[in-house]
Design a protein that fits this description.
The complex is a heterodimer. By secondary structure, chain A is an alpha/beta fold. Helices cover 46% and strands 10% of the residues of chain A. Chain B is mainly alpha-helical. Chain B is elongated and about 40 Å long. Classes of the chains: A alpha/beta, B mainly alpha.
């Protein structure tokens, strides 16, 4: 298995713990991730302002991967969504592809439509396979109660993702968490957006939305929320103090990226999985599964 | 984004931090994205706001 690693904007600057964990477990699983310097922003942030700009930026990134003969593996769910959607549009509409290529030629690029795009969690779920992952678990996390957070873009819209999971009753991330041996927390607000989509417009509402989930999980006795999107983690982790101020209650719920969780179950040292960069201290939770690793 | 091709500006500090963590550097500027912004007219929105005189 070999993919071009699409980091996007947030992961390399704000979520290096995610990136470290991905690189560590990918190497351990024999998944080759190739860095392509020419990958820029996916285009998602300007989609609501100018969809044409997003189309060209996404098409350019797809062309960069195609030039190297590689499929794309994304770590961010928004990057995954916009690259997948653009790819489908270009593959299904030859006239649009020709028209986009007229613009791409001005920057010496061309896209033929041969690339596949997948989120890293989907690569683990489908390409590596849940049963194969089970074989790699050496330290089951049976002491942990973990709550999977799917976010808005990982499985929706269903048609864009070959219906690989059901948006109304998603189970892929639950299965990925369960394979680590952890207990999967079932909860009411599971399908809620993190609030990130409106953070820049109406912070109070965004925080209220993330606070609903964090409160429920704290009350449910979850040890951590498990994320697969750096921007969702910006809400749940980076903004958790603001959520606490708004709710007038302490939450203190660690937010882990799924590859960190899988890495623990595979027996990796937390240092190799970037846990020291987690902003909500994970020490108490880590002590339940790797006591020797916590000071 | 129109200037850097990324949502966040990547500075030398960021790449030094990445190096300390054992991560590869990331590119700081994308002239091709600047050209896309010019093609679509988005470069006009990417200009710094004018400061109004009192």
């Amino acid at each position: 298995m070999k993919y071009a690693l699409f980091l996007g904007c947030t992961v390399p600057i704000r979520s290096q713990n995610y990136e470290l964990a991905v690189r560590t477990i990918a190497a351990g699983l024999g998944i080759e991730l190739v860095d392509l310097e020419e990958f820029s922003c996916c285009g998602f942030p300007v989609k609501s302002t100018n969809a044409r700009t997003t189309l060209l930026m996404a098409a350019r990134n797809l062309a960069v991967a195609e030039e190297q003969g590689l499929d794309v593996c994304c770590l961010c769910s928004a990057c995954s969504a916009v690259l997948t959607e653009t790819n489908l549009e270009l593959q299904q509409h030859p006239a649009l592809l020709r028209e986009v290529n007229r613009s791409l030629r001005k920057i010496n690029r061309q896209y033929r439509g041969s690339v596949k795009v997948k989120h890293f969690a989907r690569v683990l779920y489908e390409d590596y396979g849940v049963e194969n992952l089970r074989q790699r678990v050496t330290k089951p996390l049976t002491a942990l109660k973990l709550a999977p957070h799917y976010g808005c873009h990982f499985v929706r819209p269903k048609g864009n993702y070959d219906a690989f999971d059901d948006p109304e009753a998603s189970s892929s991330l639950d299965e990925l968490v369960a394979v680590t041996g952890a207990q999967v927390v079932r909860y009411e607000t599971k399908k809620y957006c993190c609030g990130g989509a409106i953070l820049g417009v109406e912070q109070s509402t965004a925080l209220r939305l993330s606070g609903m989930k964090l409160s429920e999980l704290r009350d449910a006795g979850a040890d951590a929320l498990v994320s697969i999107c750096p921007f969702c983690s910006v809400l749940y982790e980076d903004n958790q103090k603001k959520v606490e101020e708004q709710l007038q209650r302490e939450i203190g719920l660690p937010v882990f990226f799924y590859p960190q969780v899988l890495g623990l179950a595979m027996g990796y040292d937390p240092k190799d999985l970037g846990f020291r960069l987690n902003k909500v201290r994970p020490d108490e939770v880590l002590a339940k599964v790797v006591p020797a690793a916590v000071g | 984004m129109g200037r850097f091709g990324r949502l966040y500006e990547v500075e030398d500090f960021d790449n030094k931090k990445r190096q300390r963590l054992g991560l590869p550097p990331v590119k700081k500027m994308f002239p091709e994205v600047q050209e896309i912004f010019r093609m679509t007219g988005m470069d006009k929105y990417a200009q710094p706001a004018e400061v109004s005189q009192p």
